[in-house]
Amino acid sequence: MDGVVTTQPGSPLSRIERSRRLVRGRRYRPLVLPIVSLVLGVVTWEGVARWYARPYLLPTPPSVMRFLAAHAHLLFAQSVNTLKVTFIGLALSIGVSGVVAVFMVAFAPIREALYPLVVATQIVPKVALAPLIVAIFGFGVTSKALIAFLVAFFPLMVTTVQGLVNLDPALVELMGVLRASPLTVMRKARLPNALPYFMDGVKISFTLALIGAIVGEFQAGTQGLGYLLQSGISNLQSPLSYAALLVLTVEGLVVYWLLELIGQVLVPWSASARASAGRQERA
Amino acid sequence: MTAQATPLEFDGVGRVFTSAEGRIVALEDVSFVVRSGEFVSVVGPSGCGKSTLLRLAAGLIAPSTGRVFVEGNAAAARSKQTSLGMVFQAPVLMPWRSVIRNVVLPMELRGWDRARAQTRARELLEIAGLTGFENHRVWQLSGGMQQRVAICRALALDPEIILMDEPFGALDALTREDMNLYLARLTEASRKSVLFVTHSISEAVFLSDRVVVMSARPGRLIDTVEVTLPRPRLKETQFAPELGALSERVYRGVTGKSDSEIANSIRELA
């Protein structure tokens, strides 16, 4: 195109051509711009670390990467421990919130009896319970998974209840015209309706369970990335802490992305899944 | 019930809604019947209780006064055995189900075996011109196609009565015309008893054997217009002079204006 069409600068055609180039460039922007920010961030980190000049508190990026390469095995093994605790906590959240949500929506008396109490318990900062839980259940996986569960449970339960309740009123009427029993409405309409809400809740709960697992490892630490992070600080071995933090972040991102993928396969009709498939939801 | 039972009967029906703002009389002393194979439309201004009539017939709510009968029995006590098809303004399809599985739903709830239900659904979709879309996701279909899926679902159990609540209200004018022709063809072939609620007077006259005209709140029956247009109703019928004359009579009923008043308002517009 460029070679064939020659135009005066500032002429209408060249302006059109320029805007076309801009649109073409825009396609790569979602990929290029975050990489630019990342590079800028790392460069800034390097600069600040050199100026601060206390490597036992703030290591430079290359020293963290060197540590990561040298101790990859240790970090990997400990990240598996953290993930294990996270997933046990998440699984507990899924099981308990699923059952509680269905019962609360199906039976009004149960809802009225439990819901205010469950909401009230959310005022308690669950992280503050961590020492208590460790005192009761010891330094094993149980305590850590329990802390992860406590932190992760509530949002999942709330979103699941919402999904079960927010059924299109016309769909409720349709089921009424078909003379469907409450059990049938639950099975054929409320549960599938709740699935996209539930999947969104699982994503939120996962990130919270990960926080819970780390807090648990701070408290009951002999294992896990949380333990490595803390021991790196107390031993003035800062690259260890930063490497643990980096692994933790990557791990969290990868699992979150996997959950997103599972959601798209499981609930292709959900608004978010449709949007990412490039389809507009019909009004 | 016996085949002779009147499909649908409203007998002195009133309905009052009580809310925080007070009592609202939605319907007052409405009586009319839908005879077997008859297509009856209800027109009237917004808030005249048209949709309330359908909900009463479907047994979703009970009348405050009077009685509603479906095939000779109280509508609210309708058992699962007496099926009734309902089409809403929105298609109200389940997005987690494919097109065919949406049509299968009523048969599934009735306990039909899978193969039989699938065969029936395929037949209905073919009549609706949706062959080839059986396994599509419902949101991949246009608004008119979605509403045809909803009509297939309403016909699934081959009910004697079909209730329609402004089913084409959300569609564009051309699609709406197509849907009217499709519905006329469908009801003429199956001789279903239909109660059809609409805002469109010409649509009501085009489709119906009878048009029931209702007043603004509280909804009362103020006129019943017998539509003498020949069947089958075709594309040409939409331009028939009789349709215009009947529409005018219905319009007069809805607006409550006399001939001279209408003439005056037309002059004012000009």
Task: Please describe what this structure looks like.
The complex is a heterodimer of chains A (283) and B (270). Helix content of chain A is 79%, strand content 0%. Chain A is built from twelve helices and no strands. By secondary structure, chain B is α/β, with parallel strands linked by helices. Chain B has a domain at 8-83 and 159-269: 3-Layer(aba) Sandwich (Rossmann fold). In chain B, helix 2 (99-109) packs across helix 3, helix 2 (99-109) packs parallel to helix 4 and helix 6 (201-207) packs across helix 7 (241-255). The radius of gyration of chain B is 19 Å and the shape is globular. At the A-B interface, helix 8 and helix 9 of A face strand 6 and helix 2 of B.
Strand content of chain B: 15-25%
Topology-level CATH name of the domain at 8-83 and 159-269 in chain B = Rossmann fold
- CATH structural fold name of the largest domain in chain A: MetI-like fold
Low-confidence stretches of chain A: 1-7, 277-283
Strands of chain A, total number: 0
